[in-house]
Amino acid sequence: MARSNGNRQGIISQTSPKSAMAEAYRTLRTNLGFASLDETCRSILVTSAGPGDGKSTTASNLAVVLAQAGHQVILVDCDLRKPMQHKIFGVENGRGLANCLLQNLPVEEIAHKDLVQNLTVLTSGPIPPNPAEILASEKVRTLWGTLLEHYDYVVVDSPPVLAVTDTPLLASQIQGVLLVVEAASTRTDIAKDAKEQLVRANARLLGVVLNKVKMQSQDYYYYYYYHREESSPPA
Ligand SMILES: Nc1ncnc2c1ncn2[C@@H]1O[C@H](COP(=O)(O)OP(=O)(O)O)[C@@H](O)[C@H]1O
Ligand SMILES: [Mg+2]
Q: Which of 86, 103, 119, 235 maximizes the CB count within 10 A of its CB?
């Protein structure tokens, strides 16, 4: 698949691997226990309560640091309303997940391979008129098993939990879920609502990523912090 010349500013783990933020994503990888392949957690859905919290940024960087560790990784953009992964990686989105599901096209034919060594990206494809229906289909459920046969890790970017019904359903089909919380703006009750919806759908919550934290240092930069599942989502 042809690659456009778009920039990749969103993937700091690739463009600035020595930055504090890239280091934070590697710490996230370690904290999640991905240093060794755990059969029970090879698919990870990244989500959050609302739009703009950093789901797509977290999903792409997590996928990159897993690939950098030598794992074969596929990143799937399941946000069929506001897809971002093609923009983050600067690739075309003429065909993607929607085509796999609606036209039975094989993933290997349309996914973007080796955008980063070991990383394949399946963009959303054209935005369909009925995303909820498509994501609820049996084909999606079987897709995860197929991908896990070919890849070490499947990282899934998703729509916000509280905006649509897609995410809790998706989360129940994926082995582990990461909840992104934007430090400055996500209210505790909203984060708890999102967590409860996921738990109600029988999702396995791996932890919370606190995103866009302003550091108390001379340089103000964004940082990540990982909380274990037992701790409640921070304000
Ligand atoms: N840790 C971060 N530091 C700086 N900017 C960030 C960070 N995480 C996300 N962003 C920016 O915030 C905006 C929304 O992020 P995005 O990942 O698209 O959110 P979502 O997928 O939850 O809607 C984007 O412009 C992205 O570049
Ligand atoms: Mg997004």
A: 119
